[in-house]
Amino acid sequence: MQIQHDPRRARLKLILTLLSLALSALAIWWANNNLSSYYLRILNLAGINAILAVSMNLIFGFTGLFSLGHAGFMAVGAYTCALLTLPMRSKQTIFLLAPLAWPFNAVTLPPFPAVLLAGLAAAVMAYLIGLPVLRLRGDYLGIATLGFAEIIRVVANNIPTITNGALGLKGIPSFANNLWWTWGWAAATVWVTSRLVNSVYGRSLLAVKEDEVAAEIMGVNLTYHKILSYVIGSAFAGVGGALMGSLVTAINPKTFGFMLTFNILIIVVAGGLGSITGSVITSVIYTVLLEALRPIESGWSIGPLHVPEIPGLRMVVFALVLLVIILFYQRGLFGGREFTWDGVLDWIDRKRNRKQEVAG
Questions:
Q1: Cα–chain-centroid distance for residue 308?
Q2: Which pLDDT band holds residue 5 (cuts at 50, 70, 90)?
Q3: How far, in Å, are 97, 158, 161, 172 from residue 166 at the CA level?
Q4: In Å, how far are 18, 63, 166 from 28, measured between CA atoms?
Q5: Are 123 and 234 in contact (CB under 8 A)?
Q6: How far apart (Å, rounded) are the C-alpha atoms in residues 148 and 72?
Q7: Which has the higher per-residue pLDDT, 37 or 319?
Q8: How confident is the model at residue 151 (pLDDT cuts 50, 70, 90)?
Q9: Is the backbone of residue 336 left (phi > 0), alpha (psi -120 to 50) or beta?
């Protein structure tokens, strides 16, 4: 506890934080102005994956709720943001089979409030779903949330006055094709999640994860804390869906199938349940490798061995990598560990002490 109240250490941590923020801003500015659109798209997608992975880790890794409904909340956020940001002329062009319903046919908002409302819409949906579903545990909870995600997708396919049905929405404003948007929201997700898990609420969430019966005996309100985690995680899933819809500029119900949730689950498990650092770093690694491995789906040869074109071979490779990680790193690559300035300063102090011992 003395280390936490050390003024010198606190000043060093503040300086390091400000330096890291300045370097991050400089890196984003340079990338936005110098990288090609292809590399920017990869980095933007990595930022969105970081939002989704951290939000799922809050639900699954920190609270222990085996939820498979992330894709459904992404769909809610994506459609909400797209309908709020599409220009009126585009709405009139897209909705030919059935007129767009109110209030979307009368409102066009700037991107920032539209993304906020997308997260709010996903949070409201998560609250309505969570009240009955979060009474379940384990595999039953996973099956129920997966069912609700599929219900959301089917409903989106059958309400043409809002979602345009199976035709989907096209020409969505591409404001998310900018690293300030994607990584800015990723930073906000990390900050909110870290503040939550390091608070009294966070300790209660960990207690729920470890043993619900013991947590309830100690006075933890299980329903309240489960819904709190579920709603906040789903809200950021809605934000991630809104940004993804803007990045690809076209969405339809098929976009939000189970494979989307499965991809995020790979990142969370590989990075480490209960590790925000692991989710962010693994999101970048996963996104970059997913693009780097794209050529193997086009067929390749090694000497006499010839592998024909196999669509989806990348995911087979990632499944094998995940299997190896689970076998040798059962808690993921980071195993619940986090990057902190305290850890960096402790490492520096240990190095300094060893040099002094050797010199002495």
A1: 34
A2: low
A3: 11, 8, 12, 16
A4: 15, 33, 37
A5: yes
A6: 7
A7: 37
A8: very high
A9: left
More confident residue, 216 or 239: 239
The alpha helices in 35-87, defined as continuous H runs, are 37-56, 70-85
CA–CA separation, 292 and 298 (whole Å): 12
* pLDDT at residue 229 is higher than 90: yes
Backbone angles phi, psi at 102, to 5 degrees: -75, 145
CA 327 vs CA 13, 131, 151, 197, 281: distances in Å: 37, 36, 34, 28, 20
Residues 63, 208: contact at Cβ < 8 Å?
A: yes
Residues of the chain by 3-state class (helix, strand, coil), percent to 5: 75, 5, 25
Six token digits for residue 247? 């990045």
Residue 270 CA to residue 265 CA, distance in Å, equals 8
Count how many residues are written for the chain. Answer: 360
Structural contact between residues 45 and 208, judged by C-beta atoms closer than 8 angstroms: no
- In Å, how far are 136, 152, 346 from 13, measured between CA atoms? 42, 45, 12
Please give the backbone phi and psi of residue 301, each rounded to the nearest 5 degrees, phi first: -135, 145
Check residue 360 and give its pLDDT: 60
Q: Which amino acid is at 33?
A: N
* Both structure tokens of 340: 């902190």
Domain ranges of the chain: 34-257
Query: pLDDT > 70: what percent of the chain?
Result: 97
Q: What's phi and psi for 153, nearest 5 deg?
A: -65, -40
Residue among 319, 295, 297 nearest 308 (CA): 297
* Tokens found for residue 33: 């102005």
Side chain identity at 164, as an amino acid letter? N
User: Which residues, including other chains, have CB under 8 Å from residue 14's CB and lie 6 or more apart?
Assistant: none
Structure tokens of 163?
Answer: 């979602």
The predicted structure's pLDDT at residue 246: 94
CB of 78 closer than 8 Å to CB of 245: yes
Distance CA 75, CA 80 (A): 8
What count of Cα atoms within 13 Å lies in the side-chain half-sphere of residue 95? 21
